[in-house]
Design brief:
The protein contains 9 helices and 9 strands. The protein has 278 residues and is an alpha/beta fold.
């Protein structure tokens, strides 16, 4: 496995590369969910292609007072994880931004609601760093998890609007046996929090069941999800929304292409999840 730690080295690597390349952008603290992203990346790259992983804890997507400084950075463990998974290239840049930077990439429509409301500036940081990764590593395709569904939709829009010649591949959420979506932030949960965290999935399943039984009032469906979540200890709702999967606009009545998305604090840990309803 080749490890690159500077932007100049990344660009040199791209100039010399001849194989198809599929990128998996991450912030590290790799887990079983990332393993599925890597499996899909290898499937698309082929045995002779390149699977590239980037690890960079991006300061631009952390709002003031968030967990940027304490975000896990298990460098050697992540490197071994990648090597064991058959990754060809690990890009872990020490620096990504100039001190006097003045250019950013910002999507303004899909990022207006959901996590964009709770975390102003977050998706500008995501788009900026992903655009830089695309420019530096020039992959043929990039793989993202559907757990961060809003992020996936925004990246697809950025690729479309800026004409990046890159295929964006979404991978279904990987879950624990009790339904909790795998996330690097799960390690912040204490014992009680971990026991309570599956309530997010339970709430979404309840909404899906009601929808299957014919309930189409979004207000009533959200109320049902809220009732399930509020029954859990130390759970505090940030938002619950039912939106169109393509444009992420809130719905008033359930219709085809609907998605429930939510963010919930379990103690001090903010978890997000989503589920297709129709």
């Amino acid at each position: 496995m080749k490890i690159i730690e500077s932007t100049d080295a990344a660009q040199s690597h791209v100039r010399e590369r001849r194989a198809k390349s599929v990128l998996v952008p991450t912030m590290g603290a790799l887990h079983r969910g990332h393993l599925e992203l890597l499996r899909v990346a290898r499937e698309h790259a082929g045995e002779d292609g390149e699977v590239a992983v980037s690890i960079f804890v991006n300061p631009l997507q952390f709002e003031p007072g968030s967990d940027f400084k304490k975000y896990p950075r298990p460098e050697s463990t992540d490197a071994k994880f990648c090597e064991d998974a058959g990754v060809n290239l690990l890009f872990r840049p020490r620096e990504m931004y100039f001190d006097d930077r003045s250019v950013y990439v910002e999507e303004t429509r899909l990022s207006a609601g959901l996590c964009g409301t709770s975390r102003p500036g977050h998706f500008r940081g995501v788009c900026t760093v992903v655009a830089k990764l695309f420019n530096l590593l020039a992959p043929n395709a990039a793989v993202f998890g559907e757990k961060d569904y809003q992020q996936l939709a925004i990246i697809r829009r950025m690729v479309r609007d800026l004409n990046f010649p890159i295929e964006v591949i979404g991978v279904p959420t990987v879950r624990e046996a009790d339904g909790l979506a795998l996330s690097s932030r799960n390690q912040y949960l204490n014992t009680d929090g971990r026991a309570a965290a599956p309530v997010l999935y339970q709430a979404m399943l309840r909404v899906k069941e009601l929808a299957a039984d014919g309930e189409n009032s979004v207000t009533r469906l959200i109320d049902a999800a809220r009732s399930v979540i509020e029954s859990a200890k130390d759970a505090r709702i940030d938002y619950i929304s039912i939106v169109d999967r393509e444009n992420l606009q809130p719905l008033e009545t359930l219709r085809p292409n609907a998605l429930i998305a939510l963010a919930v604090f379990i103690g001090k840990t903010r978890l997000i999840d989503n589920l297709r309803l129709t």
